[in-house]
Amino acid sequence: MAIVQPGKRPSPRLQRSKVLGGKMVKGRKATNADLNVVPMVDMMTMLVIFLLQQFSSTGEVLYMQKDIKLPDARHGQMIEQAPTVAISADQVVVTGQKVADVADLDSDAGYLNIPALEERLREDKKRWDFIHQSDPNQKWDGIVNIQADQKVPFRIVKRVMYSCGVAGYFNLNFAALDIGSGAAAAQLPAP
Amino acid sequence: MAGGAMPEQGGGGGKKKKKALDAVINVVPAIDLLSCLITFLLYTAVWTQISRLQVQQLGTGAPEPLAADLQQKALAVTLAVGERGMALSVGDASYDIPSLGRSPEGVVLQDLKSLDTRLKALKGEYPDQGSIIVTAEDTVPYGDLVHVIDACLGAGLMQVSVSGV
């Protein structure tokens, strides 16, 4: 008697069957496995739509800093590119460069201006004048962004404002967290 | 039947071959495109919405107002912010808006709702009025100043000037 491998041994009639015979025949498995990518495409599409809604063409003008907590506002406008003065509880920074310590500003209360800040802003204004010297139609708008912590007292902000004004920056943009859309949604009547 | 609608295939055998009706769309380029888009949008996403409240400061190099503007600004509206509350001056009249006390941390709580009501009443009475001068004491926090300016802008007084006391 021939030696056969152990396992199921269907009868010849069953092996010939088109319905049941296929299950008994050991064949090679296909090496190409089909992967259903439709859910992945759906998810990616949703992600793209969400990110497109978040997209801002102006980019990030002001960066959130750890030591500066901004107050919130409902009626703010879109922020625009301008020199930025950041005032935290400890220091005053102009576009990444520290110009004064808040403790020093508190101690010499006799003067209003901050010389280092003035100097830095004057340099920026000179650069702007040089760039636009051949364009008489371009008028100086004197815009500066002020980004201060919500607990910073007005006596510090006032000195920064004064220094900005002396340097030629008289249009001040106070930075605040925009809660306009959220507040508007909250004020809507419930369905 | 669907098979009958298919055009006959050539061939000498006389057998009719049926074309598969299920079309397979190659989604690989779509996935590539979406991946690139997601990477770009994630890189450029701005998660914190920062807005600006535009104000002018009095004096210190600001351009002088024109005569026409001065005529429009005949009504002087001044809002003084301090530790005791706020005082709104409209021409000769003056309205006090006392503070709501202090928070447990010792911060003065300004009555912004009353201010909002008062400013809206002012705007209703003088619809052409668009400017206001906000003065603040040295101890007023930046957060309170921003809230007061925000209330002014919300009431329709778009030209806000800030100065110290």
What's the gist of this structure?
The complex is a heterodimer of chains A (191) and B (165). Chain A contains seven helices and seven strands. By secondary structure, chain A is of the alpha/beta class.
* Gross morphology of chain B: elongated
- Considering residues with a beta carbon less than 8 A from a beta carbon on another chain, report the largest interface and each chain's count: A-B, 60 and 46 residues
Secondary-structure element series of chain B: HEHEEEHEHE
- The protein's oligomeric status is heterodimer
Tally of separate helices of chain B: 4
Structural class of chain B: alpha/beta
Radius of gyration from the alpha-carbon trace of chain A, in angstroms: 35 Å
The end-to-end span of chain A amounts to 83 Å
Task: Provide the β-strand percentage band of chain B.
Answer: 15-25%
Average pLDDT of chain A, rounded to a whole number, is 81
**Portion of residues in helices of chain A?**
25-40%
Give the strand line-up of the largest sheet of chain A.
Answer: 1-7-6-3-4-5
Question: Largest sheet of chain B, described in full?
Answer: 6 strands, mixed
Estimated structural class of chain A: alpha/beta
Mean pLDDT of chain B: 80
Let me know the number of strands of chain B. 6
Task: Identify low-pLDDT runs of chain B.
Answer: 1-12
CATH topology of the domain at 55-164 in chain B: Nucleotidyltransferase, domain 5
